């Protein structure tokens, strides 16, 4: 199996062993600290990337100005992957990871939360002198020792979903006024930090099961318990809505996956339809053109070539990546750094096939770059 990366590489985030302005086509990584066949997920931030393997180990590469690689290093960049020592997580395997602009986090198999990177806006949930940047994973206790289920980062906020379906938000995230009527939002403190607590108004009718953050907004995937079997057709939203990115919807089909960019969103539905809405100044909605007013407040369908079925959608800051069930990769949107992988820096307005040898089994995206792991060997 082979690992490919393309796009912005100014901080060595492509793991190629060097820094460069950009790589406009997929480049094969020749060295990495993980076994490609064991990779569970790839998560990208502003200029760094985390790879989680099936053994619960985390591997990091790229920008490290705020310690977001978690390597306890003061080097500005690491242009090759290194494994974060397991002792930093108290020898407990990691179950899930997430990246923000200059911040990272992970949750262990025992549902314990670790965070590292920038704390300039108290987004690590810590309000103490000397903690502007945290360079190795730091455990954060939630109220009443609540187990953590998922974590999501925006530009200046961190949101944590707990096992009992509450959300705690650290840092800065402005909530629209009035907030969604389905939610109860209260201000509290945690470790001397101002913290926002979010829970549904009626837990017998609605349950938050997933969250995904953009630059200054957040989408919540919910289960409607009033429906037989519990439908996931409803999403709620919080935060900035300048481009319609915080509009909430009740879809006609269950939501399989939410993917969020800086100011735009994608919802992959159970019937394999992909709906896009939010900002569209670079073609990041993949609808074939840009929008004169930049904003698309109502969902539009993303069209794929005939016969292609979506498996997973990933969002960069202003571009998108889609892996099909056939193992092909399509990209669209902002392409200034070659992040669409089509040997160009012109923006791409519709999903376009990326030439990668073999069948891609897993992919991921950061702010201006992409990764893919292919089952084919390259000589």
Automatic annotation (TrEMBL):
The keyword Nucleotidyltransferase does not apply. Residues 2-371 form the RCC1-like domain. Keywords: Guanine-nucleotide releasing factor, Repeat. RCC repeats lie at residues 1-55, 56-110, 111-164, 272-326, 327-376. Pfam families: WD40_RLD. PANTHER family: E3 UBIQUITIN-PROTEIN LIGASE HERC2-LIKE PROTEIN-RELATED, REGULATOR OF CHROMOSOME CONDENSATION. This is Secretion-regulating guanine nucleotide exchange factor-like. The gene is LOC6903205.
């Amino acid at each position: 199996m082979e690992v490919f990366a393309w796009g912005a590489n100014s901080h060595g985030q492509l793991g190629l062993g060097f820094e460069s302005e950009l790589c406009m086509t997929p480049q094969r990584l020749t060295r990495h600290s993980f076994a490609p066949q064991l990779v569970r997920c790839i998560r990208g931030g502003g200029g760094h990337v985390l790879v989680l393997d099936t053994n619960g180990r985390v591997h990091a590469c790229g920008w490290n100005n705020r310690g977001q690689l978690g390597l306890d290093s003061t080097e500005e960049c690491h242009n090759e992957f290194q494994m974060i020592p397991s002792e930093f997580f108290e020898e407990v395997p990691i179950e899930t990871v997430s990246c923000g602009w200059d911040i990272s986090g992970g949750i262990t198999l025992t549902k314990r939360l670790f965070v590292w990177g920038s704390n300039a806006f108290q987004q690590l949930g810590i309000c103490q002198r000397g903690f502007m940047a945290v360079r190795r994973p730091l455990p954060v206790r939630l109220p009443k020792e609540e187990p953590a289920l998922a974590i999501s980062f925006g530009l200046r906020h961190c949101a944590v979903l707990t096992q009992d379906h509450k959300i705690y938000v650290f840092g800065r995230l402005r909530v629209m006024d009035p907030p969604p009527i389905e939610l109860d939002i209260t201000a509290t403190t945690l470790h001397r930090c101002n913290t926002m607590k979010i829970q549904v108004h009626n837990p017998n009718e609605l349950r938050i099961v997933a969250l995904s953050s953009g630059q200054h907004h957040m989408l919540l995937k919910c289960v409607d318990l009033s429906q037989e079997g519990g439908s996931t057709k409803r999403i709620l939203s919080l935060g900035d809505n300048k481009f319609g990115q915080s509009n909430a919807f009740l879809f006609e089909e269950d939501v399989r996956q939410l993917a969020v960019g800086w100011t735009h969103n994608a919802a992959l539905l159970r019937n394999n339809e992909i709906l896009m809405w939010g900002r569209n100044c670079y073609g990041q909605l993949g609808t074939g053109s840009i929008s004169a007013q930049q904003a698309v407040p109502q969902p539009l369908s993303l069209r794929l070539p005939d016969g292609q079925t979506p498996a997973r959608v990933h969002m960069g800051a202003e571009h998108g990546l889609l892996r099909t069930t056939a193992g092909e990769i399509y990209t669209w949107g902002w392409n200034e750094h070659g992040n669409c992988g089509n040997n160009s820096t012109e923006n791409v307005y519709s999903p376009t096939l990326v030439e990668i040898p073999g069948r891609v089994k897993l992919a991921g995206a950061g702010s201006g770059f992409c990764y893919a792991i292919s089952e084919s060997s390259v000589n």
